Amino acid sequence: MNSNHIDLAFQWLKKADNDIVTAKQTLLLDGGPTDTVCFHAQQAVEKAMKALLTFNEISFPRIHDLLRLLELALQFLPELEKMRTELAEISNYAVEIRYPDDWFEPSRDDALQALEIAKKIVKSVKQKIQNN
User: Fold this and answer.
1) Is pLDDT at 95 greater than 90 in this prediction?
2) What span, in angstroms and rounded, lies between the C-alpha atoms of 40 and 106?
3) Separation of alpha carbons 3 and 8, rounded Å
4) What contacts 24+ positions apart, CB below 8 Å, involve 28-36?
5) Mean pLDDT of the chain
6) 113, 124, 131, 115: which is closest to 48 by C-alpha?
7) If you write DSSP's letter for every residue of 13-47 in order, what string do you get?
8) What would the pLDDT profile of 12-58 be if each residue is shown by its tens digit?
9) What is the spatial distance between Cα 112 and Cα 103, in angstroms, rounded to a whole number?
10) CA distance 78 to 73
11) Does domain 3-130 have CATH number 1.20.120.330?
12) Average pLDDT in the 77-90 region?
């Protein structure tokens, strides 16, 4: 395996961790913006899946669609299939939530759920990569 791919995969994971930290810290703010939490949760999942693909030397398109990334990642982490519904729910947080014309403020429960999904997937990807 090319060591550049391994290094890049760990860089993707570091970025995913940073998104988790940002989401957690934003939730600690009194009246913290839940759209920001949801965006960073989605980003953490996206970057974790891209880490998994990079680690396995699989090219992927420059997309934010978690379900398309899931299709590529399932061969390496089949247990992600059970998260398909949750991934579909948070996939929209990549783009739609960022712009004022499509803006909506998710509930705090939505933000908490998105963060839990992200933490679970990032953890699974890290374990898979570290065990290889």
Assistant:
1) no
2) 13
3) 9
4) 33/105, 34/105, 34/106, 34/107, 34/108, 34/110, 34/111, 35/93, 35/97, 35/98, 35/103, 35/104, 35/105, 35/106
5) 92
6) 124
7) HHHHHHHHHHHHHHHHSTT--HHHHHHHHHHHHHH
8) 999 999 999 999 999 999 999 999 999 999 999 999 999 999 999 99
9) 19
10) 8
11) yes
12) 95
Residue 125's CB is within 10 A of a number of other CB atoms, namely 28
Which residue bears the tokens 């891209």? 50
Query: Shortest CA distance to 54 belongs to which of 87, 14, 8?
Result: 8
Buried b (16+ CB within 10 A) or exposed e, 10-38: bebbebbeebbebbeebbeeeeeebbbbb
Is the predicted pLDDT of residue 96 greater than 80, yes or no? Answer: no
- Whether the CB-CB separation of 45 and 117 falls below 8 Å is answered with yes
Q: Which residue has the higher pLDDT, 3 or 8?
A: 8
**How confident is the model over 99-127, as pLDDT tens digits?**
666 667 899 999 999 999 999 999 999 99
